[in-house]
Design brief:
globular; Ammonium transporter fold; mainly alpha; single chain
């Protein structure tokens, strides 16, 4: 390519990556609204605080060390990238353009921005699973470790050129690298945290604890759905030629169809099981379809993408029920949506991508889960011993809004004299 052509491609692809990153950042609002709608009114302010602060923590930690760990200049080996700090001087426009035809056609700073919103998404998965009983500052302390160290190391294994990438593990936009990571960390925390008071009876009863605002939860679903076009579409990284533009269009279509398939399948499955159209299951079904297609949104036909979403939608309903029967309390179904269906998304890749193998995909699932679950369990355990994970019983009854934040999301109307 001549210099003017390189510059046009550079500008266009950089802009595309930045806009896609902005869409993924908007998913933070989706998680906040979804979780605020699915918790009780007395816990709304605290869950909103978690979602706002975790985003800032993720960005700061990824700038300090996460990005350089995930994309090291010179890794120690294919398993351990080493530890380095701050974004280096190599992330400049001049470095990119000097590379000629083979150089990346987008700014590395744009890549940092696109990657940092992904790590925030992984941490957002955790907040809903531990809702309504975990101390705010303990959660934020864990966020520092996950976003700064745990996530970047397993991210390096695939996206940074580590051993999973060398073996041919495929995960286009992160069914495993992002979503399974968040769910694995959440599972470790929930197991040590324990269920909410009153969730499970002494005789094996499972008591439903409805959310406070289903309109808000539904809005959160649609915001996440919209953001996912940046999540998957942006992961194509380029749009500056005909082939790449066509690929991005296909990714958008497949992402949308998987969400539709997941929503319909979850709704129909819930109708057969419960006799009613369960909105919360439909919401989680749409998200399950999105998680499932994230590992490979380019190779499938739109019909197969829909089927991938359908299977994800059915899986999430049975997973939510099964996890409840195991007395693992997950208020928003995050472990099912992002963990169980994340595994399905990774394992579904070889059905449409003949260059991948089930054994390698399974290795990726096992590696990511083992690393994140074990390291997260250690961190949660240390925090539990040092300061405790959950609020007091009295604070949980009254709601963590007042205990942790000193304000209510829905204060009663009071007449002042």
């Amino acid at each position: 390519m001549d210099q003017p052509t390189i510059q046009i491609a550079y500008a266009l692809d950089t802009f595309y990556l930045l806009v896609s990153g902005a869409f993924v950042m908007w998913m933070a609002a989706g998680f906040a609204m979804l979780e605020a709608g699915l918790v009780r009114a007395k816990n709304t302010t605290e869950i909103l605080t978690k979602n706002a602060v975790l985003f800032a923590v993720a960005c700061v930690m990824y700038m300090i060390c996460g990005y350089q760990i995930m994309y090291p200049g010179a890794a120690v080996n294919s398993y351990w990238p080493g530890v380095s700090f701050l974004i280096g001087p190599e992330h400049t426009v001049a470095t990119i353009l000097k590379g000629g035809d083979d150089a990346p056609v987008y700014a590395h700073m744009a890549d940092f921005f696109f990657q940092v919103v992904f790590v925030a998404t992984a941490m957002s998965v955790v907040s809903g699973a531990v809702a309504e009983r975990m101390k705010l500052w303990v959660f934020l302390a864990f966020a520092v470790v996950l976003t700064g160290f745990i996530y970047p190391i397993e991210g390096y294994w695939k996206w940074g050129g580590g051993f999973l990438d060398a073996k041919g593990f495929a995960d286009f936009a992160g069914s495993g690298v992002v979503h399974l990571t968040g769910a694995s960390a959440a599972l470790a925390g929930v197991l040590l945290l324990g269920p909410r008071i009153g969730k499970y009876g002494k005789n094996g009863e499972i008591n439903a604890i409805p959310g406070s605002n289903l309109p808000l939860a539904t809005l959160g679903m649609f915001i996440l759905w919209l953001g996912w076009f940046g999540f998957n579409g942006g992961s194509e990284l380029k749009v500056s030629n005909i082939d790449e533009a066509n690929a991005v269009a296909k990714v958008f279509v497949n992402t949308n169809m998987a969400a539709c398939g997941g929503l319909l399948a979850a709704l129909i499955t819930a109708k057969f099981l419960f006799g009613k159209a369960d909105l919360t299951m439909a919401i989680n079904g749409a998200l399950a379809g999105l998680v499932a297609i994230t590992a490979e949104p380019l190779a499938p036909s739109p019909l197969w993408a829909t089927i991938v979403g359908v299977i994800g939608g059915v899986l999430v309903v049975f997973s939510v029920i099964g996890i409840d029967k195991l007395r693992i309390d997950d208020p928003v179904g995050a472990i099912s949506v992002h963990g169980v269906v994340g595994i399905w998304g990774v394992m579904a890749v070889p059905f449409s991508n003949s260059e991948t193998h089930f054994s390698v995909q399974a290795l990726g699932v096992i590696s990511i889960f083992a690393w994140v679950f074990i390291t997260s369990l250690i961190v949660w355990f240390v925090l539990k011993k040092l300061v405790g994970l959950r609020v007091s019983e009295e604070e949980e009854y009254e709601g963590v809004d007042m205990a942790e934040c000193g304000m209510e999301a829905y204060p009663e109307f009071k007449i002042s004299k």
